[in-house]
## 1
Amino acid sequence: MPTSPAPPELHSAFATHFGAPAPALFVRSPGRINLIGEHIDYNNLSVLPMAIGRHVRVLVRPRTDTKVRIASLAHGFEPREFVLSGEIPPYPVGDWGNYVKAAVQALAREHDGLLGFDAALDSTLPVAAGLSSSSALVIGIALALLGANGRTWNPIPLAEMMAKAERYTGTQGGGMDQAICAGAVEGTASRVDFAPLRITPVPVPSDWRFVVAHSLSRAEKSGGAQQTYNRRTVECREALERVEERIGRSGRSGSRGTGYRGLLAECPAAELVEIGAEVLDGDLLKRFRHVVTEADRVSRAEVALRASDVATFGELLSASHVSLRDDYEVSSPALDELVGIAERAGAVGARLTGAGMGGCSIAVAPANAVEGVLDRLRTEFYVPRAPEGPLGDHLFLADPAGGARVMQLD
Ligand code: NG1
């Protein structure tokens, strides 16, 4: 067999499901950690994610009709088959095949004459872990379909299209994950700006280390976490409307209709928090305070990253976690514990990453302190819980990786 960048077990799975001839394309689509800027992308505020070297991997063979057949190596993900069109009826809510349909339907609406494909896929990303396995799948499928049809693609328009497309699955998500997955540059994190989408690579200093630690509970965005997530998007809108009304009345107009970004362009975050406290209370005040202070932390974190100032960067990460825990209320006891252990073990900062409500934490540490952090997480969190599978599935270092790619096989 000629050498292939795809693992042999994926080739075997493809042959078992679909027989000869061999697949023609291999797609690799990365997950991400979000360094900072959590739950603000859907408010059109900038975020700072980094693609990592764990991927959804797809072997693809073009078809001469409009069928899409797909098999996953992951346990519990049954094969799926449907016909490509601009109106694809969804599977029941929570079915993994809806991520496949989301990408295919969106592209079928945009491009005439697309034909289907057969594909086998696997993933080196933990599922429902806040590492964006869902968008890695959506972008991976989009590239499989485009590649199978010999179409070219550009990261920005593809990411914009797929951010909208993924809402087919029922989550009213922002566009961070699709953007970093499609547009990441190796060795860098990216500042992602929205409306219009822009991706600006920011180099990651070579002696910074990012520790990813799974809380061992899933952030099931196709289940209860989806309702919480969607409710937060509504709460953010309500809080914004009330503050805009107030600012309009007090003569600070110009911000009406321009959203959180407009507010932050006119007022420093600290002042906005004070204004918010006059017109909001309870949950809405808390959500508002998280959004505006998190946006401010993103700007400062980008400056710290560019200046290789790991101490300031770490402080901002830890402050972000406190805000997500207390004001946005999307942490969990296990995530708080992971963050606490990492900080006590010498990480300069730590926080939950992604949507929260389970999933992973990240910690940042200088290279010379990282072994201590890994060791304490292992002994204090994982050893007592004895999770199934190798420890490296739950606790690992993340390096800044490049974006999704399509490779032709010989
Ligand atoms: P994850 O962690 O992949 O569930 C979700 C959203 C992001 C962003 C983060 C919170 C999707 C596909 N992803 O990510 O847009 O809002 O939560 O910052 O909805």
Note: The first helix runs from residue 8 to 18.
## 2
Amino acid sequence: MKELPDILWLEEIRKEDIAAVGGKGASLGEMAVIGLPVPRAFVVTSHAFRRFLVETGLEKTIFKNFENLDVENNVALEEAAENAKAAVLRETMPQSMVRHIMEAYQKMDDGEMIVAVRSSATAEDLPDASFAGQQETYLNIKGNENLLKAVQMCWASLYGARALYYRAKQGFDDNSVNIAVVVQQLINSEKAGVMFTTHPVTGEPLSIIEGSWGLGESVVSGSVSPDKYIFDQRSEKVVDRLIANKKIEIIAEGTHGTKVVPVSPDRQDAQVLSDEEVARLAMFGKIAENHYGIPQDVEWAIVRSTFYILQSRPITTIKPKGTPASSGRTESGSTIILRGQGASPGITSGKVVIVRDARDTSAVREGDIMVTKMTNPDMVPAMKKVAAIVTDEGGMTCHAAIVSRELGTPAIVGTKNGTIVLKPGQTVTVDGEKGFVYEGAVSVQQPQAQAPVIAAPAQIITATSVKVNVSIPEAAARAAATGADGVGLLRIEHLILGLNKTPGWFIANHKEEEFVRELYNGIKIVLDAFYGKPVWVRTLDAPTDEFRNMAGGENEPVEHNPMLGWRGIRRDLQSKDQFRLQVEAFKRLWEQGYSNLGVMFPMVSHPDQFIQAKSMMREWGVDVDHVTLGIMIEIPGSAILIEEFIEAGINFASFGTNDLVQYTLAIDRNNENVAWMYDPKHPAVLRLIHDAIEVCREYEVECSICGQAGSEPPMVQWLVEHGISSVSANIDAVAKIRETVARTERKIILENARNRNA
Ligand code: PEP
Ligand code: MG
């Protein structure tokens, strides 16, 4: 490699300089050179990184770590990665390099500028596309010391487990891969968005600009409906504008990350861009398009009338289904006609069928896209047939979300007006990950640079058990195939609700035996699939409104707020027959030798409820001292009284965060208007969980989680760090949660070892 300086400013860089500054650095440099207002930046070159390796002697030692490394062996891979990263972080940069970086930073607001520090990895002569996303970016960095540390952390990230795995699989020699680091002014935009420099489908000279308040992340991620402006380059006029109701914005939070906040009422319906601003953005778009020779997909930001172009890359229009898609972000060229929360991953196309109530489900055909206000248990048979599900209402823990994830069916919830926007018979494509509905049948290609998921095979042994949630017996085999350590939640109401009759109906019609058999058979399927592993079966917990449309539903009380109403253990303790029939099914299973069955009581708020339930079970012939009985912690009261519950004899407790969040923060979990406030990591929720875990640990009582938050890696990392004994995730999340658990446990071990050696 030819000798290069440690530092290059964007203006000194050309697109050919990939080997020196990586793909990201080269593309930003090119944009700056053609006159686009790119935020100020310099690059710590790949040469600097090599010099660091050579002068510290690391070049001679670090790659030894990777010789004969079996990257399929997760434990060995993690260990090699941790060792290499620790080695890079331990060494001190050469003094002259420190000086060069500090001198450059001094030129950015006298060393006071808040910057983003981004990795830009490269192999000789290769663009970084294949490495994108595998190395780290650090936002909100300020000050010399933090900057130097962030640069070194970017370097270390070149040896992360994911990156090592990917390179091994692609046949790259780790020693031939370099990394540059882009140090760039962080733009705390007042407004931001995206632009297509030409109509992506028709090719007309129209600039299509979407924008909203705050950081552009809200538009790119689809978490807000942005304003849309169409600028005709021929007449140089804004020819169409659609002003959206923008409820939230994403803003920088202190010196760490970002946060979602509500948009002030006066700005919610206000126009984000003036016509002059639209025209100016369109002009920058044209500069990029003319330079690169093809239409561009551009990210922009504006701060106090200063314009910034953050990224520019070619648009590739979605091809009709069946046509092989070319490389690039193919979905970016299609028209998104509806957005909501991606609730169950997967991409599929089909014809819309609008379902207003269970009677409409007779019109549902295999492969349709079912669009409804909210699914009900009586729609489950139809849900099993369709290719995707879209609802107006609901959040990540609503009925539609839970059942779709289990069926493996793509789903979007909380679109607000899907039943109005989408028309019966219309062909659409649903992306259940991003929460987008596209017009027509489109083939959405996975981004080329997407890293392979490192599968987390069952044989990774973790001290924290990783279990799975199940609601419908049909999902038992898929759930077991994840290699999960058991079932942390089996919701049995789905066994009954699918029959379209309320428990009360079975009792009133003297069909108790049928009811017991349904439960017995359904639960047995799951117990068999998890033979020898614990299966925690939860007693009935359906709010009264879910029973309304079923036979017997007419006898259900009408409640103003069913979420706070007659459900879970509070109902069972009063509806003794209903409780007795469930206990009868459990008793028969225990008698059959299914000692892996544990019973979990939902919605408990006082230890007396547990004591009463146990004594009723004893009365009905259960040997309560020799079976496993536990509770869900879904109500703050039960978290606060955990010690009293333990004294009352529970064998385990499991956080039902879906409810715990709604009852702690007063946020209806199914109300999309407040979904943005629904946060399992709210400090009050975390404090309740933390304190309850501490008490469980003290008494050595198993403590778990089975709410949706147990399928979210950052939350699981926090839980493992705070001593949870098991987690239970959705079927689709088990592999990644096992990986998160393994990684977190290894970190804890490593840190303890370091502290001991320090
Ligand atoms: C919960 O509340 O977190 C939970 C798992 O129960 P459900 O979602 O069935 O209310
Ligand atoms: Mg619950």
Note: Residues 384 and 407 are 7 Å apart (CA to CA).
